[in-house]
């Protein structure tokens, strides 16, 4: 079974880009696990994936993309619009997959399509967006945002109740949304102050 | 065995490809057979050497008609290189491709070392492979730091990741990189192909690192690429000096084309991805015609038959990408402390070696050491994949644990 723990023990130097990179790596691992497994393992892995994607995309939409829009040199808006459109499409696919559940016909094909879209999206961010942030946003700001994101994620439930029939449905409606709300609260506060 | 000299291949005038044919679909970004990636990287290096060699030949050739023939085949080889290298996916990062390059350097060189009939040449490959093995480990640690991902994603259990001959001691005086060449008349034809193949692969590694290194923003990444690209340059010196400088341009051209036939034929036998297999098949058919042209040039301008250069037995055993874990562990256990002096191998740190080390390191730790220190600092340990037990060299076992 692949190791899906956060690869990095967060050190004092970790910034929000490090954190998002680690999440990209976890997303890759979870996709591998979902595609390579069946039954309860697949269901659990998919639940974890949905939850991670919800938290991760929220952090990007709330923190990263707004920061990128204001970067010097222009072009930030167009780049962010492209990323947001990719995220919107991925969410649509994800919604369909959640609605059908892991046993639905076409889940396998759908999840592979979703993986390719999500990983390409992640690479665009890593190649064109994150380096700009590291170059233009003060390091201290990036580090404090990492702390904010981590704190918000910690207060959310770590795992849905196992073996209930609608674990995935619960997750999509419940804990994942809770993560999103907490993230929004947490990141808006330090950013606004 | 398949003898490429007996085949005509695709007529040269039918070998120019259009945009649609050049626009190949890359391999998937995830869950790919690592050795498919390795075969692509190898053939890219081979095609790059083909192009560069023919440019050098053209610059040294006064015959306008020959220059035109070389220009045509060189254009075709260029299209082959574009097709092969463009099979790599755009979503792969530079470091992921780098890990692929090092996996090639390890498993390709190890296979060649195992199959090399000449003991002096075999020693040259055994010596070199332990150094690339170390580079894989250094880059794997960089990869986790910079991209937060694990090299296991790339090597997928086929190649171990742990220290080889430490990069810090790979920096030798350039005089000691120069080896004794084989003798073109008495050497086994297989040895010519081995030397050209490893030379081409290492040369491509050097080109790649020396060009992509500055694209990184992270200081440790920039520095590590700088350091290892300098070692790769030394490797090119090491391997190219094995080739007989007395080989003339005509026979070198023939050997190049014959080698391309051997490698495309080899990879055709083992390719797991049917779409990539079709590329190897097509390129083999193209190379057969290039070989015919090289054979004609050899007969006309050098008065020799191709069999005098590459033998008449047909292709040697197909080169195969496969795990070499036991073999590498054996080399680690027996040759880790080997050094080079003159054209031979020694175990002591001799004066010229110490002089070079002093000039370069000047009391500082090189990037290849810093990258491990930094990884320990940030992650609490170093990144390794030791699937077959602890490191065979006790002094190279991790201080305070590792994770994979």
TrEMBL record, chain A:
Tell me where on the tree of life, at the top rank, the source sits: Bacteria
Q: Which residues cross the membrane?
A: none
Pfam families, alphabetized: Hemerythrin
Hemerythrin-like domain residues: 16-133
Record region (Disordered):
153-172
Q: What is this protein called?
A: Hemerythrin domain-containing protein
Q: Which organism does this record belong to?
A: Micromonospora orduensis
Automatic annotation (TrEMBL), chain B:
Q: Which domain of life is it from?
A: Bacteria
Bias (Basic and acidic residues): 382-397
Question: According to the UniProt record, where is the region Disordered?
Answer: 382-404
This protein is called: Ferritin-like domain-containing protein
* Originating organism: Micromonospora orduensis
- Phylogenetic lineage: Bacteria, Bacillati, Actinomycetota, Actinomycetes, Micromonosporales
